Amino acid sequence: xATAIKPTTExxxxxxxxxxxxxxxxxxxxxxGWSEMIYNHITLKVPGEDDAFLINPYGLHFxxxxxxxxVKINSEGETLDGxxxxxxxxxxxxxxxxxxxxxxxxxxxHTHTTETMAVSALEGGLQPVNFYACNFIGQIAYHDFEGxxxxxxxxxxxxxxxxxxxxxxxxxxxxxxxxxxxxxxxITYWALQRACEIQLATLSMGKxxxxxxxxxxxxxxxxxxxxxxxxxxxxxxAAMVRLVDKIDTSWRx
Length: 253
What we know:
Aldolase_II/adducin_N, L-fuculose-1-phosphate Aldolase
């Protein structure tokens, strides 16, 4: 069962709903096998507050995260909700910089899955060799590995590397996916994860078939025709939460 520690401060209805949304996302990631011990991070801005976002409590597994034990912090690393849990500095330094510099990016995901880390360590990174990879060609930025991301002075280089993209592959490390909403970040991450899984499987068998750029252009142009109403990723994420609820509903606590 999740370890719930109730915040000591009052919260708005919007914050309460944001907590539930983010907690459900952690459980979805765990269900999908995308958790990594007590590490990695998904953050979400608190609606209506200029400098506040929610992050997982350092020391808990993704399967233990619930609405009440998420930690509310600001870009200076100050805890805003009286939480007794610490925050992983590697998550805070990276995510706080992006939230501050890109205020329209409300959700940020960073993971260490085998497949995304492997592609981040591959010369050429993600390659146009499968359906999902074609979603992202020309839309991924790369940043050279500088060690664990705990130094604030790396922040400007991370921002410069990202540029106008919304996926940053940290070479030899793993992806950072940014989204205007949590469902948008989720579906982007899901498709990236699938692209990496399939690339690894394909390269293990021999020389892949590369999709030409003109076909990639048509593919990316036409993707909007298969989206359902509700915004990018909304129906997909809702379906995954329904699956999580069949396993454990304690994320709502």
